[in-house]
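Working notes for the structural subgroup meeting. M.R. asked for a predicted model of this chain before we commit to crystallization trials. I am recording the input and output together here so anyone reviewing the notebook later can reproduce the run.

Input as submitted:
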Amino acid sequence: MGELTDKLKAAGNKAAGATKEAIGRHQRDPELEAEGRAQKAKGTAQNVKGSIKGALGDEI
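Returned structure, recorded in token form:
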């Protein structure tokens, strides 16, 4: 996977995570809220991975 693919997946995970977190908070569902935070963290990690690939090349 290339830099762009990683960054697109990251954006999707961050958006989905933020949505889950907000719904969980609104419905007072701590499990859903935590799941959303975890998915946002996964998106952040994917974004970092994409940035590294961009800096060092896609061959990592």
